[in-house]
Amino acid sequence: MDNQVLLNILYDYYGELLTDKQRKYFKDYYFDNLTLTEISENYNISRNAIHKSLKEISDKLFYYEDKLKLYQKSLALKKIIINLDDDLKNKILELI
């Protein structure tokens, strides 16, 4: 899987654990496709500071996944659900 796609998925799981500033930088870079230069100009800080911050954010997201494994558990659960027969799936959906 592409690293950028994985980071976006991990952000969905752990984004609320980041600071407001980190969430802004991440969204600007990965969702709004702004360059490091554009982000640095928007926040009046150096391009290098943005780069360093994005690296720290990435490291944090991977750290959270390594410890909590929410994404891995989600994949495992999806695999189990896919392998259930249709009758059992319908019974589970009725309970929800």
Binned strand content: under 5%
The CATH architecture designation of the domain at 3-69 is Orthogonal Bundle
The radius of gyration over CA amounts to: 18 Å
**Secondary structure tally: strands:** 0
The CATH homologous superfamily name of the domain at 3-69 equals: Winged helix-like DNA-binding domain superfamily/Winged helix DNA-binding domain
Q: What's the number of helices?
A: 6
Which stretches of 5+ consecutive residues score pLDDT under 50?
Answer: none
Kindly provide the name of the CATH class of the domain at 3-69: Mainly Alpha
Residues in helices, as a percent range: over 70%
Sheet having the most strands = none
Written account of the structure:
The protein has a domain of 67 residues: Winged helix-like DNA-binding domain superfamily/Winged helix DNA-binding domain (Arc Repressor Mutant, subunit A, Orthogonal Bundle). It has 96 residues and is mainly alpha-helical. Helix content is 81%, strand content 0%. It is elongated and about 60 Å long. The two termini are 31 Å apart. α1 packs across α4, α2 packs across α4 and α3 packs across α4. It has 6 helices and no strands.
